[in-house]
Amino acid sequence: MIDSKYSVLFMRDDRDVTRYRVSPFWLRMFIFSQIFLFLFAVGGIYMGVRGLTINADLHTEKKALEQRLVDAEVRLERLGNMEKILQSYDPTELQSLLSAASSPEVEEPEPQVEIDLNEIFIRTDTQQVGVENLQAKLSKRKLSISFELNNLQASKSMAGQTDFVFVKKDGTSVAAMTNKSDLGFQIQRFKRIQTTFLLPDGVDKDDLFGLRLEIKGKGGDVIFAETYPLYHILA
């Protein structure tokens, strides 16, 4: 009985019966190998599904971290711009204003203009257009501006109007007298915009802190707005 073997018969209609003798050891090895391959396949499928789940979680976490980083950069840039405005004030003038405010001889202090820094530095970005390589060149009182406007909506064209506002060191703003035909756009992918306009009357370069860019869509809503300090964009 030790040398007993199993007989395996293969029968076909067009051939004689073929018989193979198989040792019980090799038969068990075949069965075990099939079980092992099945378990290995199940394990591979489990690890693949688990890897996809982990990858999806990491992708979601990456998106959240990228958004937090963008928000932090916007807040940091806004705080930096506010610091630049505060540093632009003359210390002597500030000291005189503080002394005048604390002096009992001043009966009726002049009302101070309330400055809304959020209105000056708040950034609007609806992810419809992107602005790159904004540069400015000032020659006497003539300011030349150029930048690249990209359409971030690949499925449709974008149309609208661009405008500029001068931001002075005292926090007030003055609208720029621009050429509307230079700043209107209708783009499928991107467009380089160039325009030239004069400084407002009574305003010199030393009075200016920055230039605010506002882009409105076809419906008139602001789809992009950002304030650029002059020391960043002047060539």
Give the helix tally: 5
Rg (CA only)? 37 Å
The percent range for strand residues is 35-45%
DSSP strand tally? 11
Question: pLDDT under 50 segments (min length 5)?
Answer: none
What's the mean pLDDT score? Answer: 81
For the termini, the CA-CA separation is: 99 Å
Global shape:
elongated
Helices and strands, in N-to-C order? EEHHHEEEEEHEEEEH
Task: State the major sheet.
Answer: 6 strands, antiparallel
Structural class from helices and strands?
A: alpha+beta
Helix content: 25-40%
Task: Report on the architecture of this protein.
- With 235 residues, the protein is an alpha+beta fold.
- It has five helices and eleven strands; from the N terminus they run E-E-H-H-H-E-E-E-E-E-H-E-E-E-E-H.
- The strands form three sheets. Strands 3, 6, 7, 8, 10 and 11 form a six-stranded antiparallel beta sheet that branches.
- The N and C termini lie far apart (99 Å).
- The model has no long low-confidence stretch (mean pLDDT 81).
Brief description of this entry?
The chain is α+β, with helices and mostly antiparallel strands.
Give the SSE map.
Layout: E1 6-12, E2 15-22, H1 24-88, H2 91-102, H3 117-121, E3 124-125, E4 129-139, E5 142-151, E6 158-168, E7 173-175, H4 180-183, E8 184-187, E9 190-198, E10 208-217, E11 222-229, H5 230-233
Antiparallel strand pairs: 1-2, 3-11, 4-5, 5-9, 6-7, 6-8, 6-10, 10-11
